[in-house]
Amino acid sequence: MQRTRFGDMACSIARTLDVAGEPWSPLILRDVFVGISRFDQLQADLGISRKVLTERLRWLEDSGVLERHRYSERPARYEYRLTAKGTELVEVLMVMVRWGDRWTAGEAGPPVLYRHRACGRVSHVELVCAHCREPMGADDIDVEAGPGSGLSSAAGRPGRRPVADAAHAPP
Amino acid sequence: MQRTRFGDMACSIARTLDVAGEPWSPLILRDVFVGISRFDQLQADLGISRKVLTERLRWLEDSGVLERHRYSERPARYEYRLTAKGTELVEVLMVMVRWGDRWTAGEAGPPVLYRHRACGRVSHVELVCAHCREPMGADDIDVEAGPGSGLSSAAGRPGRRPVADAAHAPP
DNA sequence: CTGCTCCGTTCTTTCAGGGAACTGACCGGG
DNA sequence: CCCGGTCAGTTCCCTGAAAGAACGGAGCAG
After folding, report:
1. Region (Disordered): which ranges (chains A, B) (predicted)?
2. B77: which residues sit within 8 A by CB, 6+ positions away?
3. What mean pLDDT is predicted for residues B7-35?
């Protein structure tokens, strides 16, 4: 957990960070996604302190991103699984992988490859507009105030990025 | 900065987190992206401690994600801009926004809207395969060891996720 | 020369992460 | 029946990083 609470900000980035923003959480989700799902496995694989791992797992469970599933009665044993909410969060990781591969992989090449089951090829993700299906990167959009911004209407003067600091309400 | 260094791990997620993984960095990038680019603006907008803001900006600059541009001589004044590397990192934020909008926005609706310049519509991003352009989410892929994995070849037995813990080399 | 803005340092306090030992329920073997 | 081993945590102390607030200094306006 970070010192400052992000969950109250009127910003979807901040609210996402509030769930999975501190450094270990994305790696925990990655491990659970690839099948490392038990406490000791996670601890050994990540090298995380058991204390912090416990805290993170509880937090992710409380956030509805992971669920704790008892796979053995009587020596009560648990494994963690991604919920639908958590599986969608993995998409964020996939884009992070893409960026890391491009900018930090070095000469060794990417450490992991993704095979797209639909077409059978080793591939990577690309961002497109949900409507026109054309590429939609950071340079292809304008930002506007939405209903949850705390502003009554979009009053930003026209420009490259109409609304600058309306992305999050004042305290 | 986190206690444990992620930059050395053979995992693109960890290496991305090493650059922008601690909680404030994504929000700094968001602000710079929407035009909040000066020190005092950032500090006031985020409510971050000035000390930490200084550290983060240096780190992001050293990582090649931001550049410091002097917009005024003689009362030397600077603003921060996204590099190409940083602009691509914003794509990760866009996917985080998508997730936050879907799962944490509540009844107020999303705080910000993105208008796709190519088609003119308010939209959101979707992940597709770079090859076949079909949807490519967490459930649509298999993971395999890549050249940078530290493994000589992909020896994982076939299954839903062929390579489980080969995603990152052993210590 | 007084106050103001901008962009940071420096200082102290506090709190979360790291590391390692400990618990406790269960199981298998000799 | 006791020993060792596995799994899933819990408890403890120590240190280092974040928060908060004060300070600095360069320039400029009045």
Report:
1. 141-171
2. B38, B70, B71
3. 88
Task: Return the beta strands (E) in chain B as ranges.
Answer: 66-72, 77-82, 112-116, 122-123, 125-129, 141-145
Total tally of structural domains belonging to chain B: 1
A44 touching B, CB under 8 A? Answer: no
Mean per-residue pLDDT over chain B, rounded:
82
> Does B166 sit within 8 Å of A90, measured CB to CB?
no
3-state secondary structure of A166: helix
Give domain status of residue A157, yes or no: no
A110 and chain B in contact, CB less than 8 A: yes
Give the residue numbers spanning the domain of B78.
Answer: 12-85
- Residue B17 belongs to a domain: yes
Q: How far is the CA of B115 from the C1' of C25 (A)?
A: 57
Q: What is the CATH number of the domain that holds A66?
A: 1.10.10.10
Query: Token match 């053995």: residue?
Result: A72
Whether the beta carbon of B73 falls within 7 A of nucleic chain C: the reply is: no
**Measured between alpha carbons, how far apart are the two ends of chain B, in Å?**
21
Mean pLDDT within B109-122: 93
pLDDT of residue A162: 36
Model confidence at A171: pLDDT above 70: no
- Burial of residue B152 (CB within 10 Å: 0-12, 13-18, 19+) is exposed
Per-residue buried b or exposed e for A114-124, using 16+ beta carbons within 10 Å of the residue's own CB: bebeeeeeebb
Indicate whether B116 belongs to any domain: no
How many angstroms separate the CA of B3 from the C1' of D12? 20
How do residues A115-170 score in pLDDT, each as one tens digit? Answer: 999 999 999 999 999 999 999 999 999 999 888 776 554 333 333 333 333 333 32
In-domain check, residue B47: yes
Q: What is the spatial distance between Cα A88 and Cα B102, in angstroms, rounded to a whole number?
A: 10
d(CA B166, CA B144): 8
